[in-house]
Design a protein that fits this description.
The structure is a homotetramer of 387-residue chains.
Chain A: E1 7-13, H1 19-29, E2 33-39, H2 44-53, H3 65-74, E3 83-87, H4 93-102, E4 106-110, H5 117-130, E5 134-137, H6 144-154, E6 161-169, H7 181-185, H8 191-194, H9 199-215, E7 219-227, E8 238-245, E9 250-256, E10 267-272, E11 276-280, E12 286-290, E13 296-300, H10 310-314, H11 326-345, H12 360-378, E14 383-385
Parallel strand pairs in A: 1-2, 1-3, 3-4, 4-5, 6-9
Antiparallel strand pairs in A: 6-10, 7-8, 7-14, 8-9, 10-11, 11-12, 12-13
Helix pairs in contact in A: 1-11, 4-5, 5-12, 6-9, 9-12
Chain lengths: 387, 387, 387, 387
């Protein structure tokens, strides 16, 4: 069945910060989704201002997410939003997502999933009970060359994985911290709002998800060395973590917010018995492929590169050499999620299908990762299992 | 005055090829423009199919651009499209743009402007007569780091320009041409549709515009060595051109469609008396800045990089390290054009204002460039002036 | 006093493998040292063949190092070698170096220093007792940009160091191991000859020395995760190690010989409170310098780059843009060592002076590092002090 | 027959500047050549000082090259130098080389060959008449990856060559020229000493030779646009040149000494019908290989990379990942030349054998190139044949 209309998205949060606009741009990019309503801020005034800037009709701009969920649920089916995107500070994720699901809406939620394991477990339960679609925004998995890496590993091209090095160095908190007043004001630096983890919650979970997504392996145990260099609110700003994967692969994960002048230098290297792969987020359209006895190859994203795996081709909009970036990768997650929501609208199941987007279970893994890392740190940096 | 609604765009062309979707994505990205109507193909059937895929109401999908311009012009002001984007094969640009302007619509048009100098001169006249806004889509000028380069040169940071090297090697026509049936079918390879120039019209004009845009200088004369390696339709597929700029700067421009495996490797290097600049389209978020007695710098695009020029900052949507690419640059041209269209809707003049987007005059320069290059080639590759 | 002659070098080992020739080329490069004698192999025949290839007079080619040390010691002062270079398998280092020192010769020795802590302690003692010059060949410290990094950190340019990431991934043992017969024959894969450590002894100690050399900090404790992927002789071929430095800096060191298709990808990143530094051995002439609020800089090696520290300038032979590589860095260690030997010949002390080359104490640190790493591994990968 | 001794080299010039030491280091590197005598300067005092620094016996250090050639010729065969290296300012090349050949010595000479076509023709004649070996130091042809490129083209891997882009941008004369007193003093800036060409003679001939060496094609005609930006001695400091090769390939050659902050950014790109090749001198150990329908490959220099052509393998001293640079490439030219000199000593012909080093004929091509470029420039930048 051909689609007859754009999907209708509601947005909770996003009045401030850079990630709200990214969600809106990513959702709009492919012409499949339209923003129809929002509760953009805990401040009703700011919510209304944002709604006006986005050209929304006033009656679809809400003062609170509770009001939005209740009102939208009562709208006729041909007006009601189809799904809600949650881009609030971390501490609200669980409450909003739970209520949205209970009100019958599919949910796309920013990471980390929640601020505790308990919340995460409950949310998994709610998703399963409602049978609705749930997407956790690990946007880096939307890059075509990340999908290419995953596809090649799945197909056995590099053999059994031996080693994974995933890193996410960033300089956000480095430099003259005292002078950087704006940074202080980020909710990410308020343990009550962020959930008590800074570096791991903000970027470490991305690195963790990327490692599991690309390799298809699960981390079995870890040993974490967390640091607090910016002595501000006692949250970690640097993490060096050793990983053991199921099946014997070894790994290193490091995430840092004091890596001065580094931007979002997320990168992953995977070494297998037969070959290796390397990808850097800041030059996302190249995948370096390594072979034992012949030259390494520069695999490139782009329509028309017929040698790419189908998933990588499908995640590309333009021919090679026209760089696609962060927003396009983000939009790929939206597209994959939107397809499941469309299918659900047409009667298909939504909750347990594989749509090649991160799910609530990936979110749970991320929370388990944060908690295991802190447990290791607190117990003299010992190895602890990740369950 | 705050904007109260999205601008309404009509699209002519774009049912096939990759550039139509790019226009739609770029226009949609920032939530400032909505596509309201289109005549997407010379085939009425294909136009309707495309309109349906884009969720347009059937009555706003037209069988021909003549019908579209006539019908839209009669719609009430609160429904009528505000401007039209022209993404057809080159030979139609002049006719469509002229009629659209005469029907009272602002126009955004793909490059090259027309297929002859005569057409181009007439179109300039029409734009001037109507006083409407006209944007020529030289999308590479929309990249933040291109604007940074332009801004730094304008501010005198590298002193008087001595040398410019601009290149656009591409492998589109290389490889097993006979087997690449799809390529044969491109209208770009039909001289009647493309206007008789392949490499120069398709990519050479981009390189030419980039050189003049970044340096703020005008090419005064040139010496061209054009080649036809793929002996298919007798259009040039490779161009090596020496440039003399007003004021004494020297330059090299080369564009090629037989540079096997190169993608869209547009790059520019500018050397002045005090410093130099280097930019590569395939890694668009870095500008290399060169100084005589100290290390070269990697200037990076991104919100929050306070050292950037205002124009570069304004052209950036996300913090450094989250790569923005081709579509975002394209969207910057749309945004700048849209601002002028908005201002015009509010009563401001549109036709002669500087909105930091390429205009009909830039289009005319491009046509003059193509014709001068061919004139040079035909007269034993002599130097010819570019007027 | 101007030098009046070349220094005379004797060589022990080097008939096979690639490192012997490197020593000879590095020693010869600057015209300060001449090879005058050698015991090139445990096989007298092979030693003679090598000597002949090197155009040595037959009577200066020895069948054993014992014979060489004894005979050379009896030669008149104006013929006798000034120092000996030891490039044998690891297990011989201690015996040869000790005997050479006792025979009155300065010694330059390949790493690792010895195959046990006990041997290393004894050798330190012998060096101290004899007062002779001793150089351990950590050649990577000879690169100009490594010296630049060290100089900048020493001068406080990046402030207090917070984090160090040093890596040495290599694919030597990856790929089709069974087919790579030659590799099997390397003494490095025979625990009796190598000392029982493969990855750490061969490349890990280089990474370790580089981290301490560049930062000027000492590792206080570590937690090691060693792996054996190539199940051949039960030596580690991969090492992931967390580091704590004196003063609070954190670090990661990883070395690997199963990182397929990686060559000698030694790299170091150091992040301080005020700035950061990054260097890659495979592109050794660039040092990336990172600042909080301005663009990163590409500091380049080369005579005439007046902004470089004196040590980096002194370590460079040619103007920027003429790449210097591995052999030149190696030769820098020889040059620094040779200067001390020259000074000693002129009556200056040799044993306790700072010549900017790695010493026996650096060698001891390397052995302590290997032993601590294995102790950590054997005690369930706990943290252990490095004394 | 195995070699029984090192070859004996005499050096003319080299007391000042950086290229003399490079010759000495390159000659010494592989232990095949020893410096036995020299006339290092037109100043006898400086010649003696240099000889002393090089530990030469006083009687082998000469006050003039005439004295050196005469005296060495009279020495017994087992002491006499085997060949002479000429590293003086350009204007002396012809006289020295001619006299050396006439005195019976093989010659290795810096580029450009001479300062006029007339001199060059005469020197070719002398070489042919004497039957001695003559090497022109186009050192860039000594890089392993340059030989790899040449070998692959020769073997037909990229098919018929269509396009060549060779560039040598350099910032030597840019920046604050007035303040750079040292530069003024270079003989390269004195037309009487350099021969009247600056940019072309110094670096343009390298680019030209590289293009002909790698492709195996000859330039048939050219169109040159030469510039004088640094108005000092009226020699060109920038050159943009269009090339036509025999057989139809097109090309661009540009060389510049005002490309601020560029170092020795010699690079070449060759595009053929089946593939393409790209090499950059500043990262000399990688050759980028391009294919139409599969990923580009990073071909890497290094012993053990069995996929390399024999010539590239033979030009490599150490395993991949241990960077070899400028001096090593230089030394490869010396090694190839030395082999012919050795063979000649054993009775083989020297003058007309292919030793994979640049010859007097390559030198003649370079002089013809300079003269054709200037002829084009002087005749209104017309196309002129290169004979």
């Amino acid at each position: 069945m051909a689609a007859e209309r754009k999907l209708r998205m509601g947005l909770i949060g996003g009045a401030r910060g850079f990630i709200g606009p990214v969600h809106r741009m990513a959702a709009a990019l492919d012409g499949q989704i339209e923003l129809v309503c929002g509760a953009f801020s805990s401040s009703a005034k700011r919510s209304q201002e944002t709604g006006a800037e986005l050209f929304l009709p006033q009656h679809r701009v809400y003062d609170s997410y509770d009001e939005m969920l209740a009102t939208e649920a009562r709208l006729p089916a041909d007006q009601r939003m189809d799904f809600v995107s949650v881009v609030t500070p971390n501490y609200l994720h669980a409450d909003i997502a739970t209520k949205a699901l209970q009100a019958g809406f599919h949910v796309l939620c920013e990471k980390p999933l929640t601020i505790s394991r308990e919340q995460a477990d409950a949310l998994v339960q709610t998703v399963n009970n409602t049978g609705l679609a749930f997407c956790l925004m690990h946007n880096y998995s939307g890059y075509p060359m990340v999908k290419e890496a995953r596809g090649r590993i799945k197909a056995g091209q590099i053999g059994a994985v031996r080693k994974v090095v995933v890193e996410y160095p960033q300089g956000w908190l480095a430099g003259d911290f005292a002078a950087a007043g704006v940074k202080h004001q980020s909710w990410k630096l308020d343990p009550e709002l962020s959930g008590g983890s800074c570096c791991l919650g903000d970027i470490g979970t991305h690195a963790f998800h990327l490692a599991e997504y690309v390799t298809g392996l699960r981390v079995a145990e870890l040993c974490a060395d967390l640091s607090i260099f910016i002595d501000y609110k006692q949250m970690e700003d640097d993490a060096n973590i050793l990983l053991h994967f199921d099946g014997g692969a070894r790994g290193i994960l490091y995430a840092s917010q004091v890596s001065i002048n580094d931007e979002n230098s997320l990168a992953i290297r995977v070494y297998g018995e037969l070959g290796g792969l390397e990808w850097h987020q800041e030059e996302p359209n190249t995948l370096l492929v390594k072979w034992p006895d012949r030259p390494r190859e520069l695999v490139r994203s782009g329509c028309g590169n017929a040698y790419l795996t189908p998933a990588a081709q499908a995640a590309t909009r333009i021919p090679a050499g026209h760089p696609e970036g962060f927003i396009e990768a983000f939009a790929n997650v939206y597209l994959a999620f939107a397809q499941i929501v469309r299918n659900a609208a047409a009667g298909a199941p939504a909750g347990s299908v594989d749509g090649d987007f991160p799910t609530v279970n990936d979110g749970l893994r991320g929370i388990a990762f944060i908690e295991a890392a802190w447990e290791s740190q607190r117990s003299d940096r010992k190895w602890v299992p990740l369950v």
